[in-house]
Amino acid sequence: MAASAQSSVDQGSNEVKDYICNACEDQNNAETSADFYCKQCERFYCGNCIDPHGKALAKHTAFGRVDIDKWPVSKKVVDFLLTCYEHKDNKVDKFCTTHSQLCCPQCVSDYHRWRNFY
């Protein structure tokens, strides 16, 4: 996974916003949605920032949204997906075989028995 992959997760909802342009973010601009990913730089770029990047680093391969399957998954997205739905401060780290459910330590304590886990 790319170390600089960025995404914005709205803390007040279950919505995961799109990838954010790292160049705009570096300049403290508003969060701008990324349209390209450079594999060599491991960075995301919006339509405005990809042109200077392309001129300076012409041999780099940038993947557009049509090739989004070649983009890495953002650490923030992974963290969001691993956050317990009920206990937002906890990460799921167990699987209850009785309920076929991912659980955080607090869920295990509140609702499940330890012998049912992997």
Automatic annotation (TrEMBL):
It comes from Dreissena polymorpha (Zebra mussel). Keywords: Metal-binding, Zinc, Zinc-finger. Gene3D superfamilies: Classic Zinc Finger. One of its GO terms (molecular function) is zinc ion binding. Residues 16-65 form the B box-type domain. InterPro entries: Znf_B-box. This is B box-type domain-containing protein. It comes from the Eukaryota.
